[in-house]
Specification:
alpha/beta, 7-stranded parallel sheet, 5-stranded parallel sheet, 12 strands, globular
């Protein structure tokens, strides 16, 4: 697991949008190995593989760079893939296990940061901050009701580290918190101060639905047209999980029809998202470019 001078070869195969570029943390890596960073995203699978063909370690800073069985089988030197994320949906974990490749992520390390951002998105949507700012910049003194959140129901979908922290914030704010997870149990419900309910019930009861599940075959488009239709008229949706957890076309339809009162979104199907994307054109949305954990503490 080393090159000619005894240190492992480490490669960041595509840091775009920028995450590790300019980070002081990169200096800490140099004593452990020889690092090469590509600041643009690989344009093809062939280019992706060419960049890491000599790598012992891949530092995957962006989830858009994916590693399936076909790619990993072509990298006999590869021993480790480390992600700068909680999620590992960009890596075929079963294939990595079969090939003896260790995968390291950041479980729990940024949970408080991401939950705080989700809470901020919820508040921003409820108080119409983006809409009112844009109106005032146009010289329009707009009258539109805000949403009062204390005493309302917050539905937390997924109660891992981030969802658990979102539930804590909701309880502290005076909201009633209900939750859904793939594996509910009474002990965890008591610890988190939530009531676990079926997903359909959560969607029907919640004034705000906040998404915190990992992306998997089970959770892809977990929130689709049918689920959005179940939500209360005027309810708010927050997504800091993964873009593909939601059927974006159905979400746009629900927003433009007025069925939903707004959405706060930090993650998208395709990143970076273009300014011509339908979700960007929706009026009652607050959008951030996948930066929930991007604070000095989170970067470190």
């Amino acid at each position: 697991m080393s090159n000619s001078i005894g240190k492992p070869v480490m490669v960041i195969p595509g840091d775009e949008p920028p995450q590790m570029q300019g980070s002081a943390q990169l200096d800490r890596i140099k004593e452990y190995g020889n690092l090469t960073m590509y600041t643009d995203r690989p344009g093809s699978k062939e280019e992706q593989l060419r960049r890491v063909k000599d790598a012992d370690i891949i530092l995957n800073t962006r989830g858009a760079v994916k590693w399936g069985r076909a790619e990993m089988e072509q990298l006999p030197k590869l021993k480790l893939i480390a992600t700068c994320s909680i999620g590992t949906d960009m890596i075929d974990l079963e294939a990595a296990r079969d090939l003896g490749i260790t995968v390291c992520n950041q479980p729990g390390r940024t949970a408080k940061l991401v939950a705080e951002h989700a809470f901020a998105l919820m508040l921003a949507v409820a108080k119409r901050l983006a809409y009112q700012t844009s109106q005032l910049k146009r010289g329009v003194w707009a009258k539109m009701d805000n949403v009062y959140l204390q005493g309302k129901t917050l539905g937390v979908v997924g109660t891992g580290d981030t969802g658990a922290e979102m539930a804590r914030l909701g309880n502290a704010f005076g909201m009633r918190v209900v939750a859904w997870t793939f594996n509910p149990n009474k002990e965890r419900a008591k610890k988190l101060g939530v009531a676990y309910v079926p997903l359909d019930e959560l969607l029907r009861e919640s004034d705000v639905v906040s998404l915190h599940v990992r992306l998997s075959d089970e959770s892809r488009h977990l929130i689709g047209k049918k689920e959005l239709a179940m939500m209360k008229e005027g309810a708010l949706l927050v997504n800091v999980a993964r873009g593909e957890v939601v059927d974006t076309a159905a979400l746009v339809e629900a927003l433009n029809s007025g069925h939903l009162g707004g959405a706060g979104i930090d993650v998208f199907d395709k990143e970076p998202i273009g300014n011509d994307a339908p979700i960007v054109q929706c009026e009652q949305v607050v959008l951030t470019p996948h930066i929930a954990e991007v604070t000095p503490e989170g970067v470190e």
